Amino acid sequence: MIEKTLTQRIEDAKKGQMVVVPLEEVLEFIKQNDDRYWSKKDIAEYLGVSESTVMRNLVPDPRFPKSITTKQGGTASSKRWLASEVKSAIQLINR
Which sequence spans correspond to the domains of the chain? Predict the structure, then answer.
C-alpha cells in the first residue's frame, strides 16, 4: 500500500479524520512551505508580474484564498495572504 503524502493527510484532517504524522515529516513540510503572510507585492514578485495583474486577474478568482487585513497605526491597512495557500491556489489555477 502506498503511503499518503503529508498534504493528503492534512486534507484528511480537514475532513475530520484522525491523522498521525511523524514529527520529522511535519518539520520538513514547514521548512518547505513558507507560511508567512504575503502582500500583493510579494505575490507579484513570486509570479514575475505586476501588482495590478495580481489584483486584477488572480485575487478575484474564486479559487484564490481569502485575504486578511492588517492595520498599522490607526488608519493604514493592507491585505495579506498565507504564502502556502497562495502557492497551492496558483497550482490549481494553472491546471
Answer: 1-32, 36-95
